[in-house]
Design goal:
Radius of gyration: 13 Å
Protein name: Cupin domain-containing protein
CATH architecture: Sandwich
Number of helices: 2
Structural class: mainly beta
Number of domains: 1
CATH topology: Jelly Rolls
Number of strands: 9
Oligomer: single chain
CATH superfamily: Jelly Rolls
Distance between the termini: 36 Å
InterPro entries: RmlC-like_jellyroll, RmlC_Cupin_sf
């Protein structure tokens, strides 16, 4: 039998300023659905929770809706939008671009630690 869960009934939900994360745990997969509201920025909404200057979680992401800008520690930047698949390695900031929420599916195991006090 396959292991099946619905993101509509997550194993964990974490709320943070201007957003939230829902997490489902399956054998071999930690899946996250993050919703970031307009005005959300990692350094303003999650930094205090994580206790690090930049996001140190690895993300394998797929953008469902909205837009997000990602700036790496070295200053390089990119913008992702609906249909984009991306990898963001540890050491980045990110923020919502525009006035609509950004919804991201994350398939990296590290998302299980995202927005968790360390």
């Amino acid at each position: 039998m396959a292991d099946i869960k619905s993101i509509e009934k997550p194993d964990d939900r974490r709320d943070f300023p201007r957003g939230h994360l829902e997490v489902v745990n399956l054998p071999g997969l930690v899946f996250g659905k993050a919703t970031f509201e307009p005005g959300w920025r990692w350094t303003e909404s999650v930094r205090e929770i994580a206790g690090t200057d930049l996001c140190e979680v690895h993300h394998n992401g797929y953008v469902v809706e909205g837009r997000m800008r990602i700036r790496m520690r070295d200053g390089s930047e990119g913008e992702v939008g609906p249909g984009d698949v991306f990898v963001a390695t540890p050491g980045h900031d990110a923020w919502v671009v525009g006035d609509e929420p950004c919804v991201v599916f994350d398939f990296a195991g590290g998302i299980g630690e995202y927005a968790r006090s360390g």
